[in-house]
Structure formats: C-alpha cells, structure tokens
Amino acid sequence: MGTPLTQLPARAARIRVVALDVDGVLTDGSLHFDRDGDAGKSFSVRDGFGLRLLSEAGIELAIITGRKSGSVRARAIELGITHVIDGVRDKANALRELAQVCKVELEAVAYLGDDWPDLTALQIAGLAAAPADAEPDVRALCHWVSSRRGGQGAVREFAETLLEWRGQRSALLAHYRGGHGRSAG
C-alpha cells in the first residue's frame, strides 16, 4: 500500500481491534499430525505476550482462520481472546462481521495475514500487516511488514510497534519494570 511511515502513527491511533490469521502468523505454518490425524501447532510465547500487551492497552483481539483447530481455541482461551472465527473462507466478510460485533468501523481494525486467503481482509483493514516471510503479494499490500517470521516474533514486533505508534509502549514497559522508570542499562 506504500503508506509513508509518518502516517502510520495516525493510522495506529484509530486501531481498537487487532485480528490475526493463525498459520504463518501466530505459527510458523507447520502442522504436526498425531497418529489419530489430529493437527497440532506450535505458538510463540513471546507473540502471546505481545497479544497480552495489546489487551492491557485496551485493544480487543480476534483470530480469523480458515482451519478449525482445538489447539487454536485452547491458545485463544489461554490468551483471553474472545473472538475466534474459524473455518472461514471469506476473511473480508469475517472482518466486517467482527467490526460490527465490536462496534467499530473497519478503519479501527488491524489485520495480520501471510498468504493469499488473507488478501481480501488486508485490503479492507484500517492497518494491514504481515510477517517477514509472508507471500510477496501480501507484503506488497501491507502498510507494515515485520522483520520477523511468522510464529517467530512477528506478532510481538507488531504489538510493540503498534503500542509505540500509539504512545503506550513506554508506560507498559515502565509497569513491567516495577513502575520506577529505571533504564535497563
């Protein structure tokens, strides 16, 4: 989309909801099948903490994914993500419905995706983002692209960047430092 970096803080200030794809965003895209044919996924603890930071900053979280997965639902519960929309073919429609449920305009919704099924949602999101290893057509469409790969810190980097643009990162970091504002020197 070619949004100049100077415009991203203003765009970020409007964000009230962050929606994410799972495979290739919250995970590295690998599926691990047990002998019963059930798929398991690996999630980054650091990405999970980034999502907790967004939640602490008052941002609602959602998952929009094409697959139905017990492991995704379990991870969402663990992170306090109440909006889980799975088994979705039309992610743009799911994003519109999410905005209605959350009572916000689409410009207040950020979406992180990595592959062609995410393109329609990324096109209508107020802030479109992707991991570094997203497909080239996806990266070209996004306002922001992580320097990290999916499932390996891309979500955490997005969370901290969004919080920085919104002027909330320093206060959250100070809280985790014990509220004393000490530098890590």
Measured by DSSP, the beta-strand proportion falls in 5-15%
CATH class group: Alpha Beta
Helix/strand class = alpha/beta
Distance between the terminal alpha carbons, to the nearest Å? Answer: 38 Å
Largest sheet: 6 strands, parallel
Kindly state the number of beta strands.
8
Count the DSSP helices. 8
Calculate Rg over CA atoms: 16 Å
Whole-number count of domains: 1
The CATH architecture assignment turns out to be: 3-Layer(aba) Sandwich
Kindly state the percentage of residues in helix: 25-40%
User: If you consult CATH, what is the topology?
Assistant: Rossmann fold
Helix and strand run:
HEEEHEHEHEHEHEHH
At the fourth CATH level, what is the homologous superfamily? HAD superfamily/HAD-like
Across the major sheet, the strand order is 5-4-1-6-7-8
**What are the low-pLDDT stretches, counting only 5+ consecutive residues below 50?**
181-185
How confident overall, as mean pLDDT? 90
